[in-house]
Fold ATP-binding protein.
Amino acid sequence: MRQIIARIVNLLCRSKDAVDVQSKFIDLAPTEKADEAGVYSNALLYATSNPRVSNIALTGPYGSGKSSIIRAFLKKYRHPVLQISLAAFLPEATATGGAVSKQEIERSILQQMLYGADANRLPLSRFKRIKSPNRWSIFLSLYVIIGVVACWHLFQKRDDVISGSFFLPLSISNWPNFLWFAAGVSFLWLTAYHFYKVSFGLSLKSISLRDIEITPVAASQESILNRHLDEIIYFFQSTKYDLVIIEDLDRFNNSEIFVTLREINSIVNANSGVKRPIRFLYALRDDMFVNTDRTKFFEFIVPVIPVINSSNSIDKVLEQGKRLSLDSRLDRQFLREVSRYLNDLRLIQNIFNEYAIYVANLETDGDNVLDANKLLAVLIYKNVFPSDFENLHRGKGNLARILGKRDEFIVRGEAEYKATIERIEHEIDIAERQVPADLLDLRRIYAMALFEKMPAQTTHIGQNGQSLIEISNLAGSENFDQIISSQVITCRNINGYNQNINISSFQSEVDSRRTFAQRKEEIEQRAPEFKSSASRRLRALREKIATLRSAKFNEIVRLNAKELSDLFGAFDENGELASFLIMEGFIDDTYYQYTSLFHAGRLSPNDNKFLIQIRGFINPDPDFLIDNAKEVVAAMRGEDFRQHYVLNVKIVDCLLGDEVAYADQCAKMFEYFTSEFENCGAFFTSYYTAGKEVPKLVAGLQAAWPHFIPAVLANPEHLPHVGQTIAHLSELALKALPAAYPEISPFVSKKLAQILALGINIDPSRLKVLGIELEDLKSIEGFPGIARFLFEEGCYALSVENLEFIFQMVLGVGDLEPLRIRNYTTVTGIGNAALSSRIERGFVNYLKNVLLRLKDNSRESVAAILSTIGREDWPAAGFVDIEIRCLTELESGNATKEIQSRVQA
């Protein structure tokens, strides 16, 4: 009793599980519900009952539901139907990459036609098939045995049979002999009849003499259907099929096969042995025949309205998502956008079938750790690009090439950001070098130049006969820009006489390099609002450089979208779908979590390969791709972190990303760095390029190894370490470096140009923290933003060369002669606060390194000389010759006496 109850419970559980499975999956076979209104079925029933219709076409786009309509129609059609489909033949033919010949298509049609019928119905066919024994075969075998025995018995009694005594007496008592005779004769007759029928199926295909085979040349070129036309007619004579449905024939784009089939249909219907009308029903695309050819070819055409297209596919996608209870996990906007690229119902159904299988395998622990949208995107990619998906597992294909460009795009993005920074710094530099303080000063300059071109006694000026403006109001006039941009202006003198003057070359005479409009724009850029905006842009760009390597893959790809046009084009007509999935971030370099059982918390194939290599004492490259660094670290041995194996970008990122959890591993890693520092160059090069925790690495090296700074300063090849230290060490630790290592500031001052040339993004304010005094400002001419910052902060040595660079490149003063004959007068007269402050702070060095070196500096003004002599830090001896040189150039006797008295004092 208990066993019976247990079986009942088990049966109920199985039925419940079956219901659950059915709710998760849906078959892709044609459905019988495609024509619930019966519109298509009624049309086809009309066509199949019309004696004048022999060729029927069911036309519609691919995936419009033609097969489902046919299935619904067959429920109402009560006659035998022969269905021929070439869908299975298409992949086999296209796998070789070649076109499908007409003979191959015809052979497939003929095979499906003849081999689809029972072999017993076509006994005379030359196409022989294996016949399965039926239920009467046991009696047939018994009859054969009896027949053979009867023949043997008659052979033994042949003399009696020939003489006739075998049949005597002619009475019922002689029934055994009559029975033996009847069995033997019937057996011989049936055997002869069988061999006679078989002879009709024999054909001579070739004559072979050893290795020589003779066949007709035309046999390889003629139509297979026409060659076996007698077989086709015999097929319809021997079977009851009156409707032949041919599907997927249009995929080969061969219209000649339709002509052949129409001819065969006509011949079969005209044959007297076929007592019923034979109709061919074709399911094909609308564009299979051009113009009016299809209306001439078919007697009846039934158009199919697609069940799904890009406009309503969202409903089918949402329907499948609801079936799997995914409404809460899938982004509705993503579904709405991706559905525009899916217009095949079976494709959508299969994608969600696979989704149910993938989820069941990938989320075995019950936690929904995977992004449902990314998993769905990967499965869409898998179904739309199956070949590329297969290549992806081997690191090949279009998607693999796109994903492989990450590092290239990062380097390019950093270069573009740096170029933008340089451009903005150059704009700031140009704006700061403008001599006019504001727009009014610039107008006055052009106004004075314009006055020189006017005739004497000019009182008014104007343009194109418009109202004239007084000369005194010209600079402030709202029409000033239009006047100086004119080709001809009108001048009026005190007598009221007007005169036209050509000033087409006026602007180039004032400034040969820039127009008034350009200089006006530069002055406007010099405004505080522009500088503030530029500073914000520079900060934002530097932040982007710092975060570029940790950015999402789609963000990096968008910066280089043009570079991927060819790769997306390789996806053919579905390139837009591939672009959407990648650009929107639904498929990225985390795809491996969704394509195999190695998901979050598990080792990927790359991770396993890395561990296999280090266990084999092979040192992988520093940039060897590791997908799940935490799992790799957990699988590594403790001593591995004191070996070369630790030199991997992803592993170091993992360790430094959680220094508390990996404190022991970090200590061992830095221990290896300090002991093998000279052998880690390749790793540091890779990590400074691709690592995410560069600040922590630099800080760890400086903290764990007191000799880190002296070591990198001692070797010119270690300049990247110096640059990364300046760029990433904390500000507090950076301030402490000059006191702990006094040699670092002079070193950076001397090597700054080489450090900046490495392309390291260094905030100029960090150079000030080090207290550097750059010896040669001209060496960083290619970095105008940093050069200007060092000038404004006074982080440079006072020298003749530096002052000339400042005047020429920073302040935009082209004439350097005043600096050589009256340096101090020129420097103080320029009115630049930053320059004056720097000279005041280092006046003794200024005297020593500038004024004493300028032998022609003998035209200083009286005020300049008096201000220098009156300084408290003026040296008591050694610099008197400067004043003596200036005395001969002074014109004021009183001033001369005052200077002489101060010098004597």
Remarks:
- The mean pLDDT is 78.
- The longest strand covers residues 279-284.
